[in-house]
Amino acid sequence: MTKLTENDVTPEALYLKRRHFIGLAAGSVAGLSMPALSQDTSALKYKPDALTGRSDLTSLRAIAGYNNFYEFGTGKGDPAEEAWRLQTDPWNVEVTGRAAKTGTFAFEDLIDMNALEERIYRLRCVEAWSMVIPWIGVPLASVIKKLEPTTDAHYVSFETLADRKQMPGIRARVIDWPYVEGLRMDEAMNPLTILAVGLYGKTLPNQNGAPMRLVVPWKYGFKSIKSIVKIGFTKNEPPTSWNKMQPSEYGFYSNVNPEINHPRWSQATERRIGEFGRRETLMFNGYEEQVTDMYRGMDLSKYY
Asked: In this structure, is residue 302 part of a structural domain?
């Protein structure tokens, strides 16, 4: 097992950059007092998305004020009110399973701060609402390659922090804590999949999953697990929280598919936060060209 800390392996310049990057402030909705990612965010590499543009962006206030993060409460406004308790610095991630490099890693040793990119992706939630968010992060593939999974690592699992002192929602047994999720390895390595550490050029608000969260834009939002403290490499399909709790409603894959309705509501249309009316839901959330090949030959009504 490799035991690493930021003081052991992080260069001083990067260590200080991390301190400037994160700060100690939580992202409050009232003041939106989130520290900037850097002095000049124009230097970030921008990955254009043919499906969205800057004119389509959901407001920062809406992104930071309307969330699903049950660790802080089940109401959409609860995370914004309660997540100030979350301490994100320092932050360590445990890596387990079928990989050459396992152990406890500091945030700085997983995320290359010099390789940040801006990705404008839509986040589509199973409750039939969506947002367009300018995420800041790195490809998950770059982190996976650094950890050197073995050839029999077919899946990647993730786990969210579960701390009763910092997360009052955990006191209610809404789900079986901690929250867990997973991806098939080819999904995890897809260029669209990122580990996000910020949005709108600022550090990620606590209620949006600080300091690091997954973003998988062709899947429903609950797959994009927040505040990650554990990454595992497994041979077999890992358990996922909503699938464990309600398997008839939530499958492992959870791809956005307007042709497969949730048992209690239609997924054919969605409401973009900040807009009036509804729009048609796109297959794979509009990323069909980039991801269809991964599911070729699969019965999507069975592997939902």
From this structure: no
> What's the distance, Cα to Cα, between the start and end of the chain in Å?
36
- What is each CA distance from 236 to 34, 155, 183, 261, in whole angstroms? 39, 7, 11, 27
pLDDT digits (tens, 9 = 90+) for 216-240: 999 999 999 999 999 999 999 999 9
- Enclosing domain of residue 182: 2-295
194-199/213-215 β-pairing: antiparallel
Q: Domain of 169: which CATH number?
A: 3.90.420.10
Would you call 271 helix, strand, or coil by DSSP? Answer: strand
Under DSSP, the state recorded for 295 is G
- Mean pLDDT computed over every residue of the chain: 87
Query: Rounded to 5, what percent of the chain is helix, strand, coil?
Result: 30, 25, 45
- Per the structure, the count of domains in the chain is 1
Query: For residue 132, which phi and psi values (nearest 5 degrees)?
Result: -115, 120
**Residue range 176-210, pLDDT digits in tens:** 999 999 999 999 999 999 999 999 999 999 999 99
What pTM does this model have? 0.87
Q: Is residue 303 part of a domain?
A: no
Residue type present at position 287: Y
pLDDT tens readout for residues 263-291: 888 999 999 999 989 999 999 999 999 99
Residues contacting residue 121 through CB under 8 Å, at least 6 positions apart: 49, 52, 132, 133, 135, 192, 215, 217
Q: How confident is the model at residue 24 (pLDDT cuts 50, 70, 90)?
A: very low
Identify whether the C-beta of residue 165 lies closer than 8 Å to the C-beta of residue 171.
Answer: no
**Is 89 among the domain residues?**
yes
